[in-house]
Write the structure tokens for this entry.
Amino acid sequence: MDIKGKRISVIGAGKSGLAVAELLAQESAKVLLSEVGVIGERERVRLKELQIPYEQEGHSERVYDADFCVISPGIPPSAHVVQAMQAKAVPLFSEIEIASLFCKARIVGITGTDGKTTTSTIVHRICTTDGLRQGYRSFSVGNIGVPFSSLVKEMGTADVAVVELSSYQLERSPTFRPDVAVITNITPDHLDRYQGEIESYAAAKFRIYANQRGADTLVYNADDLRLSTHFASNAARFPFSIIPFGMESDADGGSGHRMVVLDGKRVVVRTPKGDDEVMETSDFLKNSFRGRHNISNVLAAVAVAKALGIGHDPVRSALQLFEGVEHRQEFVRNINGVDWVNDSKATNLNAMRQALDSIPSTAVLIAGGRDKGNDYEVIAGIVRQKISLLIAIGESQEKIMAFFEGQVPLRRAASLEEALLIALEAARPGQTVLFSPGCASFDMFDNFEERGRYFKQGVHHLLL
């Protein structure tokens, strides 16, 4: 796309909006950055240095005088500015779409309801390890917290861009084409945005492979019924290669070629010629990185390594050193025989279920936040089995209390600090205090990272 002299409105002055505005300005576009809230002082100084016009505390009519618009993924389709852009026939694109147009590197795009951050991090570590030997670099960008646009101009043709992708980012990426696409799973999430329809949510995720061609590869979770039904039955009609992965050694990915599976305690690449062992699970499972879901994430990463032509040695080296992802079942400390675990990244019930499944004994659970259309019936069984006390916080507190009344012991907490004190009193040696909200963070915190840091700080101060 030749954008020199193009009039481009960037809606949203978060990290990705600021990064894409700078990228577009560098490419001689006429950029206007528009923010409904207040832009921070440091960001305003930077915009003035770059001579990028901006407006804040609302969108003026100027934003519609554009050849196209780049819109923040957090702005819903129902927002007035989106509706007005569409009414005026102004094309809307994501920051991911724009950055990809300038990307010379090989792209690994990773999406899914759960596991995408962990899988992205593992893939990045594997590529970094291999790149040190082979002479290329790996960049970890996208939904993981670093805008694609901020680093894309540094990437060369031999490099790898590992791009974590949310459904929101994929919605307005009509030409985005990863060399390797990964879908970790699809379970109900963000249904408030998709009118309660998981099919619409899945369709947004499936955009990741929409533009792939013969030289590209799709990696998907064959244990996910929705994915296996979608891909295995239609494998022959896709123009690209497919590498399924699965937790069962007899799983059938329908590819007729390669598959990455768990065979007992071995991670193997299954081919028509037999199994090629990568490593034992004992080589990477540890206290801060445990659970069957994490084995699944490893299988996905191994499949990506195979698609990129990376040998087993870099995979083993990277995984042996891997300690897990911050805010995802992160061990914080042990207090009087009780493990305290930060799972703030669990913003949906499937992630919470995975955390509950991975704890070795019973737990005190701290949960709640901004509800995203949760149906707590899907975790009711494991909650009854594993939870000795459920402490409800945040906007969803009453919904949680009403659903689990009579099923498990319940307490309300007006703040996270109060929840920590209740948990400290209630937990017994051998148990776990698990902070796994199952909800978005925006009722009490700016994001799940801030929420997780607040929890960890509180835990470390409990005995001071």
In short: The CA atoms of residues 267 and 279 lie 6 Å apart. Residues 116-134 form the longest helix (19 residues).
